[in-house]
Amino acid sequence: MIMMTAAEYEESLRKLNLKVYLQGELVENVVDHPIIRPSLNSVKATYAYAEDPEYAELMT
Question: What is the DSSP string of 18-30?
Answer without folding.
Answer: --EEETTEEES-T
